[in-house]
């Protein structure tokens, strides 16, 4: 049974490959535009792909002591989310407000500078320091946590925030995911052969891997009662979620999708939602050969014959895989889909894969009524996270 203490989403903030602000992210994704462009931050010679979801307008760090691009993404998204939620000093008790921040690589540009001798300052790389900066920016002095669960990080932060609110440990929690592109991380991902040599085309028969991006996404998770007391607008209910691990392999997904099938079942049970209560799934959809196939099989395993009626989408086809921010960006898009009744398309499916035979909304954005959306994310190391958003 779901916990009776309701968690709601009252604020959204984003810096994405489309630019600064939730509005530009949603406008780009909902209209099927691509934000993948040539890399300008570092030399791309020798990499598997010379394109990425690079955020424009955030120049590289010039020297020691300056905020990394990653931290600037995070703080700008925090500012927007707080403003969107109407969380001004005096309307909340900072002792009852928490911060959960997730990332894959943190401020990797600071680590690169230190390791190559350009600057001696490693503080910008420290994951916990950046969480502290976000809490300081918000003025939140309650529970604080830093997560790094690979590509499931952003959604895992939402699950943790939901649990803090439902347990009465906090009235308001910032759930954030962020990351920046860097030569070190992009070269490493290229070496793993996770990067496509062409476009990212989830669920297409010729898909060959993902293309990475950067940015930050921040969601304000709040107790329903606290939001009502201060007269806040709530986008939706964060009905529940789950996190688990395949315990199978450091990089390869478990071939039968047992872990992610169980994940969805746990998330729906936590939310008190039956499978037939879901209309839309925002997928992980990396464009890798095995991930897309296994994700499709897992959806069929959970929803059975009803899987064919679901409308699915993969936002990475437009913004790339924004690493620690991916689950946060995609959760924002899932919430906007729920609120506005529009499912963004999955771009790039020119030759459907006969084994990936569900409705991925490949024909353009689709208007539809929905009451419940499931958002899934999976990561290297077998970590999986899922959340359920429900109309109020």
Provide the fold topology.
Elements: E1 7-16, E2 19-20, H1 22-30, E3 37-38, E4 51-52, H2 69-85, E5 97-103, H3 108-115, H4 127-138, E6 144-147, H5 153-166, E7 172-179, H6 183-191, E8 215-223, H7 224-229, E9 236-245, H8 258-271, E10 280-282, H9 289-303, E11 311-313, H10 316-319, H11 326-340, E12 342-343, E13 366-367, E14 372-378, E15 383-390
Parallel strand pairs: 5-6, 5-7, 10-11, 10-14
Antiparallel strand pairs: 1-2, 1-8, 1-9, 3-4, 7-8, 9-15, 12-13, 14-15
Helix pairs in contact: 1-11, 2-4, 5-11, 8-9
Attribute tags:
15 strands, Peroxisomal Thiolase, Chain A, domain 1, globular, 2 domains, 20% strand, 11 helices, eleven-stranded mixed sheet, alpha/beta, two-stranded antiparallel ribbon, 392 residues
The CATH architecture name of the largest domain reads 3-Layer(aba) Sandwich
Indicate the low-confidence ranges by residue numbers.
none
Number of strands: 15
Shape: globular
Order of helices and strands: EEHEEHEHHEHEHEHEHEHEHHEEEE
| CATH fold naming of the largest domain | Peroxisomal Thiolase, Chain A, domain 1
Strand content: 15-25%
Mean pLDDT: 94
Gyration radius, rounded: 19 Å
Task: Please identify which CATH superfamily of the largest domain we are dealing with.
Answer: Thiolase/Chalcone synthase
Structural class: alpha/beta
CATH class of the largest domain: Alpha Beta
Termini separation:
18 Å
Helix percentage range: 25-40%
Descriptive report:
This protein is an alpha/beta fold and 392 residues long. The chain has 2 domains: 7-229, Thiolase/Chalcone synthase (Peroxisomal Thiolase, Chain A, domain 1), CATH 3.40.47.10; 240-390, Thiolase/Chalcone synthase (Peroxisomal Thiolase, Chain A, domain 1). Helix content is 31%, strand content 20%. It contains 11 helices and 15 strands. The strands form 3 sheets. Strands 1, 2, 5, 6, 7, 8, 9, 10, 11, 14 and 15 form an 11-stranded mixed sheet that branches. The longest helix is centred in the first third of the chain and has 17 residues, at 69-85. It is globular and about 55 Å long. It starts with 6 loop residues before the first strand and ends with a strand. The model has no long low-confidence stretch (mean pLDDT 94).
């Amino acid at each position: 049974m779901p916990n009776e203490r309701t968690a709601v989403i009252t604020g959204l903030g984003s810096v994405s490959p489309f630019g600064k602000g939730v509005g530009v992210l949603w406008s780009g994704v909902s209209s099927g535009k691509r934000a993948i462009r040539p890399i300008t931050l570092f030399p791309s010679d020798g990499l598997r792909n010379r394109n990425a979801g690079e955020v424009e307008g955030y120049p590289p760090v010039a020297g020691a002591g300056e905020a990394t691009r990653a931290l600037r993404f995070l703080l700008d998204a925090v500012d927007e989310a707080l403003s969107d939620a109407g969380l001004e000093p005096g309307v909340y008790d900072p002792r009852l407000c928490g911060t959960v921040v997730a990332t894959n690589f943190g401020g990797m540009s600071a680590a690169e500078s230190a390791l190559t001798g350009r600057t001696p300052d490693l503080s910008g790389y420290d994951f916990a320091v950046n969480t502290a900066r976000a809490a300081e920016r918000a003025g939140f002095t309650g529970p604080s946590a830093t997560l790094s669960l690979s590509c499931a990080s952003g959604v895992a932060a939402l699950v943790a925030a939901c649990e803090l609110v439902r347990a009465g440990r906090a009235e308001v929690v910032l759930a954030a995911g962020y990351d920046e592109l860097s030569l070190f991380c992009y070269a490493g991902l290229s070496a793993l052969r996770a990067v496509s040599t062409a476009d990212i085309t989830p669920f297409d028969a010729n898909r060959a891997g993902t293309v990475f991006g950067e940015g930050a996404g921040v969601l304000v998770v709040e107790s329903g009662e606290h939001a009502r007391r201060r007269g806040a607008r709530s986008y939706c209910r964060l009905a529940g979620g789950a996190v688990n691990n395949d315990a199978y392999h450091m990089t390869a997904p478990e071939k039968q999708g047992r872990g992610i099938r169980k994940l969805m079942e746990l998330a729906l049970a936590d939310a008190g939602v039956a499978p037939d209560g879901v209309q839309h799934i925002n997928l992980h959809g990396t464009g890798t050969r095995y991930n897309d196939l296994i994700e499709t099989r897992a959806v069929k395993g959970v929803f059975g014959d009803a899987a064919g009626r679901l409308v699915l989408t993969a936002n990475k086809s437009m913004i790339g895989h924004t690493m620690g921010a991916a689950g946060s960006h995609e959760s924002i898009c899932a919430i906007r889909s729920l609120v506005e009744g529009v499912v963004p398309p999955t771009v790039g499916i020119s030759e459907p894969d006969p084994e990936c035979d569900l409705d991925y909304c490949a024909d353009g954005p689709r208007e539809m009524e929905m009451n419940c959306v499931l958002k899934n994310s999976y990561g290297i190391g077998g970590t999986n996270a899922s959340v359920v958003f429900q109309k109020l």
